[in-house]
Design brief:
Length: about 500
């Protein structure tokens, strides 16, 4: 689906019950009755109701009483029959044309509703509304709606150019997969003559000119799913007793037995493109945006959740996140980043945590043989350390000082001892880390190197104390240090 699919106009049929009986209903009412106020007739004319009127159903244009039923299961209904105490009546009958005559209960004379069409397509859907039957075997459009919205003025309200509103529903459809649907499209295709891709439903939004400069919201959404829960759903807690789920969208793609040698079965594909001559500040494939005021009460609250179902362990994903050139190009640009953060400050507890998994191979693998196994063994061909330099203090330098050498970090570096005045042959030094190194203490290896001055061997260095924030040690040589030159003490530290 890398290229936009061509439009395919579908045959849309609003169908009726399988039993081939159609429901007809109405009320015992007649118009042109004057309103009466304080016994005086008004010139205003009203509809008048006649509860419990007599309803007679005839074959259109005849005096022959039709066969009618009280339900769609063909339960016989007397003809004529009596409307209810509210004046409402209904019946079921076979496809055809009928006259319905209303009489009695105060009607001045029998009143006939003529030539009522009952038509059942017999496809199993429970609808008594619109029936559209384009010519079979043609590409005639089932429904075509052409509208032109307002070009001026301020409507100051939400606008629905076309609207379906199911006001209430307490239907008991049983268990899955007996879903109750507000709108359902079924489209079957295939055959020797078929050619080209297909789309079940497609929505197109096209901006043809800039919006008003005063517009405060310029978001354009071709397809939007909104699920709102205004009530609990018989759940008793947010653990094992939780019940009810709300999804903004649910996409199902499946290959059933016999569908072999396919190229791809995908849940969703998002094609996002900016073409030459256009520009945008942000381009995003998928953007989960958290909303509301609180997090989930249970143990799962995630921007992306990867799971698996099915009856076999083989149904699990082989890869959780997979970068590929399957669509023709490398997915990340040469100066891009696979997992990155925007340049803003935030605090989190954990970066990556796979501690609950048993990783039999590499936990992490990179170019040039870099690996860290699931057991924690590391193969690191080359290490470069960077970061904030620690600080140091020292005694035995006379009036001189101690400072980290350029490019030193908490992990590795050198301390430059610069004696002046009257230095000694021994002294102490403390290395204080810029950030805590480890949880318990830092483990350091110490050494010495000549600076502008040379050590008198043997040189002794002994660590006297160690914590996660600092390491202290003593140093010594034969003879006093020379003032005006520098001596280096090297260190390599890891946190424990």
């Amino acid at each position: 689906m890398s290229n936009p699919l061509p439009k395919l106009f579908l045959l849309l049929v609003a169908a009726l019950p399988l039993a081939a009986n159609e429901r007809q209903q109405g009320d015992c009412m007649q118009g042109s009755y004057p309103a009466v106020t304080s016994g005086i007739n008004s010139i205003t004319k009203l509809m008048r109701s006649f509860p419990r009127c007599t309803v007679s159903v005839y074959l259109t244009g005849t005096a022959t009483l039709a066969t009618v039923y009280s339900d769609n299961s063909s339960t016989p209904l007397a003809n004529p029959f009596t409307a209810d105490r509210y004046g409402h009546w209904f019946f079921y009958a076979a496809n055809g044309r009928y006259d319905v005559t209303l009489s009695g209960a105060g009607f001045p004379a029998p009143f006939t509703l003529g030539d009522l069409l009952l038509s059942d397509s017999g496809t199993g859907f429970n609808t008594t509304g619109l029936l559209i039957t384009p010519t079979p075997g043609t590409t005639n459009v089932g429904i075509g709606i052409i509208q032109i919205g307002p070009a001026s003025g301020n409507q100051n309200a939400a606008i629905d150019f076309n609207y379906i509103n199911i006001l209430s529903d307490q239907a008991n459809s049983g268990a899955v997969p007996n879903y109750v649907r507000a709108f359902d499209i079924n489209y079957s295709f295939g055959g020797a003559n078929m050619s080209g891709p297909r789309t079940g439903i497609q929505s197109n939004l096209t901006l043809t000119a800039p919006a008003s400069p005063t517009s405060s919201n310029n978001d354009y959404v071709p397809v939007q799913g909104v699920c709102t829960m205004n009530s609990s759903d018989n759940g008793t807690n947010t653990a094992g007793g939780a019940n009810g789920a709300c999804y903004g969208a649910n996409f199902v793609s499946q290959a059933l037995a016999g569908a072999t040698n396919l190229f791809e079965v995908g849940g969703a594909e998002f094609n996002v493109s900016i073409h030459t001559g256009a520009s945008a500040r942000v381009r995003v494939g998928v953007n989960p945006v958290a909303g509301g005021d609180i997090q989930a009460s249970g143990d799962t609250d995630a921007a992306f959740m990867i799971g698996a179902s099915g009856s076999s362990a083989a149904a699990a994903w082989k890869n959780g996140i997979y970068l590929t050139n399957l669509n023709g190009r490398a997915p990340i640009y040469t100066n891009g980043c696979v997992i990155c953060t925007a340049p803003f400050s935030s605090t989190i507890t954990t970066g990556i945590d796979l501690s609950a998994f048993n990783i039999t191979g590499n936990f992490l693998a990179g170019p040039s043989g870099f690996t860290i196994t699931g057991a924690g063994s590391a193969n690191i061909p080359h290490i470069t350390s960077s970061g904030t330099a620690p600080t140091c203090s020292s005694t035995g330098l006379g009036s001189g000082s101690c400072a980290p050498q350029a490019f030193s970090t908490d992990f590795v570096g050198a301390l430059a001892l610069s004696p002046t005045g009257s230095p000694s042959n021994t002294g102490t030094a403390t290395l204080t880390f810029a950030s805590a190194l480890g949880t318990h203490y830092a483990k350091c290896s110490l050494g010495y190197e000549n600076g502008s001055g040379g050590w008198n061997v043997p040189v002794q260095i002994l660590i006297t104390s160690s914590s996660a924030t600092a390491v202290s040690f003593v140093w010594g040589q034969t003879g006093n240090l020379t003032a005006g030159v520098s001596y280096l003490l090297t260190y390599h530290c890891i946190g424990i």
